[in-house]
Amino acid sequence: MRAECSVPGGREIEQGAVLYPVFMSLAGRRCVAVGGGKVAARKARRLLQARARVVVVAPEVDEELAAMATEVHRRPYRPGDLEGAFLAFAATDSREVNAAVAQEAKRLGVPVNVADRPQEGDFALPSTLRRGGLQVAVSTGGASPVLAREVRKRLEALFGPEWAGLVEEVGREREARLAGEAPEETERHRRLKAEVDLCLSRLSG
Ligand SMILES: C[C@@]1(CC(=O)O)C2=NC(=C\c3[nH]c(c(CCC(=O)O)c3CC(=O)O)Cc3[nH]c(c(CC(=O)O)c3CCC(=O)O)/C=C3\N/C(=C\2)[C@@H](CCC(=O)O)[C@]3(C)CC(=O)O)/[C@H]1CCC(=O)O
Ligand SMILES: NC(=O)c1ccc[n+]([C@@H]2O[C@H](COP(=O)([O-])OP(=O)(O)OC[C@H]3O[C@@H](n4cnc5c(N)ncnc54)[C@H](O)[C@@H]3O)[C@@H](O)[C@H]2O)c1
Predict the structure, then answer these.
(1) Cβ(47) to ligand 2 under 6 A?
(2) Could you tell me if 116 and 178 lie in one domain?
(3) What class does this enzyme belong to in the EC scheme (predicted)?
């Protein structure tokens, strides 16, 4: 594990730029993973939770990954594999292949994640905790994925499974309120806060 910041744009972080956090919709989008091992499988699992179409290209594909992927091409990567991709993942155990995938992605303008050299890619993945509609994502800016995992574990203890219903509940309350008369802004904010407080108190009580 590297001690220094090894994130895409790590240099920019030194200059004051931070990674831009975003929750992206991937339903129906073609996402291409080059490499079919443990790392590709971890990434694919989360892509599939987002209902992305996951295309895997690798001579050897992890059994679980093969069973869940939308398309599997059991062969080495070749240029052209990223055509039509919305996102790309370079996750082979070969530095040369990962570099070639990153290069094709840049040429096509497809955002790419590079597993062995994140600074060569465009985005990094956070460690995430999900409780129903509530998601918490943790990034260390690439400095230490293991630290990100440990922070996520602490958050898991803090936010137990009982939180899963909260987003749904406040969402329903909000819809009911929106269906009623429109109050002035201060009153609206007061009601919003009261709504969330009520749901939170039910959770702790
Ligand atoms: C969070 C998580 C999300 C995910 O991938 O889904 C994630 N890595 C996870 C696991 C993990 N990563 C590593 C091990 C082996 C640990 C060990 O050796 O013991 C394990 C396994 C484990 O911890 O269980 C090693 C490792 N990781 C990277 C490098 C390359 C480098 O740093 O240069 C190397 C060295 C490779 C080597 O040389 O072998 C790079 C990246 N890994 C990132 C994310 C991005 C930065 C996130 C941040 O901001 O911190 C970034 C930059 C790029 C990216 O891949 O997006 C997921 C935790 C899920 C969870 O449990 O919650
Ligand atoms: N980002 C992270 O979180 C993280 C964590 C651990 C390791 N890594 C890095 O990711 C890399 C992959 O790790 P892994 O554990 O999944 O490896 P692995 O050995 O389980 O899998 C490697 C995969 O690459 C495929 N491959 C090899 N040559 C190929 C080619 N020419 N075209 C297409 N696919 C090819 C293999 O068939 C295999 O499916 C490691 O080399 C390591 O540097 C990253």
Answers:
(1) no
(2) no
(3) oxidoreductase
